[in-house]
Task: structure prediction
Amino acid sequence: MYKKKEMVKHLIEALPYIMKFRDKTFIFKYGGSIIDNKENKRAFVEDISLLIHLGMKVIIIHGGGKHINRRLAEKGIETSFHNGYRITDDRAIEEVEMVLSGHVNKELTLLFNNQGIKAVGVNGKDAGLISAKKKIIDDKVDIGHVGSVVKINTEFLDMLLENEYLPIISPIGFDDDGNTYNINADDVASEIAMSMNAEKLFLISDVNGVYTDFNDKETFISRLNVRDAKKMIENGIINGGMIPKIQSCIQLIEHGVSSAHIINGEITHSILLEVFTDEGIGTMIEE
Result:
């Protein structure tokens, strides 16, 4: 009886959020080690499927860095990075596109279709979805086929959402000269969130969120505004790989997206806990 009462309590707590977010667009960036974990992947698919059945519009952008590392190693292609970006030559970009658009994307698409969701796996070349340009870090190192987003074909995404399809996007872009680019999945997710006037962006990885001291779990930050986030970057409190994530979040909030969330996909049903509970489970960044 106690468990049944608790279930009713949770449903009542979730009801205002279900009503508020119906017909809203949520963007999910799916990455980290959760891509390799079957249980975490299953929970992710179940959570997203429930959101869609409750009337929310969802777009997923996925990464796949570990799969790429394994494939390049198998092919004897050396992997190196410059300022956090994978140096991607002509040979490497072929393997990167195959892994992201062929393996990771189609596996995820199949899982959703088997769950009864009309999922469509695409990359940035399909319908001219992601126009890109070569990313220039500095004059010292050419990082090859690494790109920055120039434009998102929102009409294509609107068409899919209006017909109740779930777009699952691999972060591969193109330019007018026929070049293919590997683009940071966080950047693609942020650009799509802004272009689609999304309600929220969720960055799903293997970290809980933001801490003032990462080594002290008591310093976890549940809610963070843009002003304080900028100060934390300036003061070096937010550092390393968390900097580009937070910068992407700041940019999209300044462009009208309501909030961005960093949550740990290794926690079972973390998406539902973040969306439908008052406390949430990750770090929410807002204006």
Observations:
- Residues 24-206+259-275 form a domain with the Carbamate kinase fold (CATH 3.40.1160.10).
- Residues 90-114 form the longest helix (25 residues).
